[in-house]
Amino acid sequence: MSNLKYAALAAFIGAVATPAMADKAETKGGLVVKTDDGRFEMKIGGRIQFDGYLATDDDDLGSPGLISTTGFRRARLTMEGKAYGWSYKFENDFTGAAAGGGFREMWIGTKVFDQNLRIGQAKPYRGMEELTSSNEIDFMERPFATASGVFTGNQFAQGLFLDGGGANWTYGISAYSLRNEDAAATEGVGGAARVTFAPILSDETVLHLGLSASSDHPSDNGTGAVTRTASGRQFGRIAGATAIATTPEERTAFGLELAGKAGPIYGQAEYVMADYKNEATEDEDVDTWYVQASYMLTGESKPYDAKKAVFKSPKPNGAMGAWELKARYDVMEGSEGTGPAAEEISYWIVGANWFVNPNVRFMFEYLQGNVSPFAGADVEASVFQVRTQFGF
């Protein structure tokens, strides 16, 4: 374990010891310590996600094929709070391999004309699925319209992040360096913006619309569109980390969002059109889209976070927990003949989620993927995967 991780543990132990000096301590949604007047607050949270993978069909891949294994997808500790009108967040993932590689969100924030300003490392304002917490996403991995595909290598960035909104609309604007703390220093810069509107917004029915745009300019060639999804980033992957666009000098992307719910029925879809520019090669266009849906067998309804414009996990109504059936289809297409490894990559997933209580969730998924072409021929593979998750 690196010195950074020891330091994070020491900070955690010290933070846990402070409630005796505070006015009030709560345990709902994590350990919260705050003063009676609400001016000072500290919250400690975390998540453990333990995955298992069983390859059921990988003959097309040859040796070594998909890996049937187990591993920790995430093991995070989060501390956030506020003091004197300022807020902060520190989140470290102990599965991060490199020094600094465990840093996720780490920022200092305040209100500016009643808008939220954060300075530090956070996610740029892109699509709905990217901005949804890994504790709340419906599937074990995010689709290609995120840093698991089109925005590979740029899930987090360092810079300025401003957001706000009203009862049924939001906006977010970010300007940043393309560096995150697990990467070398860079002069690459970028910007991203997102706006959302919910014309229908009630406890039982929601219709969500969203639009995002981003432009990134790496100082050196950045990472192209790579499929780092489907079966976990650190374990067996469908055809490995397959590239569908080369390393760009400039990447411009536009995204559309459509999502909603009607009682126990939920649906979500996104489309992203990206352009990769590199003087040494032809411009490459990448289109990706996905559609996913779910149904709560036990009657719950997914809550909608109107401030962040994302959906969250349901809270079980009964002692036996909540059960959700789910399905997704995801595809990413590159310019014909220009993709370095593939022209089209797609997969579908069917599965179920069991929410034992507000903190514990089990996820069960069967995935089948296709890469065309890959080494001159189509490749198909499938995997059964499960997750045990505890979040607080």
CATH topology: Porin
Order of helices and strands: HEEEEEEEHEEEEEEEEEEEEEEE
Number of helices: 2
Q: What class would the helix/strand composition place it in?
A: mainly beta
Oligomer: single chain
Mean pLDDT across all amino acids: 84
- The H-level CATH homologous superfamily, spelled out, is Porin
As for the number of domains, it is 1
The gyration radius over C-alpha positions equals 21 Å
Number-wise, the strands total 22
Poorly predicted runs = 15-22, 232-241
Q: Percent range for helical residues? A: under 10%
Shape: globular
Structure description:
The chain contains 2 helices and 22 strands. Residues 15-22 and 232-241 have low confidence and may be disordered. The relative contact order is 0.14. With 392 residues, it is mainly beta. The strands form 3 sheets. It has a 16-stranded antiparallel β-barrel. A two-stranded antiparallel ribbon has the order 12-13. The chain has a two-stranded antiparallel sheet with strand order 17-18. The chain has one domain (51-391): Porin (Beta Barrel), CATH 2.40.160. The longest helix is centred in the first third of the chain and has 14 residues, at 3-16. The two termini are 23 Å apart. Strand 2 (31-34) and strand 3 form a beta hairpin. The protein has helices spanning 3-16, 128-131, and strands spanning 24-26, 31-34, 41-57, 69-83, 86-93, 103-112, 115-122, 157-165, 169-177, 189-201, 205-217, 226-227, 242-243, 250-262, 265-277, 284-296, 304-305, 310-311, 322-334, 344-355, 360-374, 377-391.
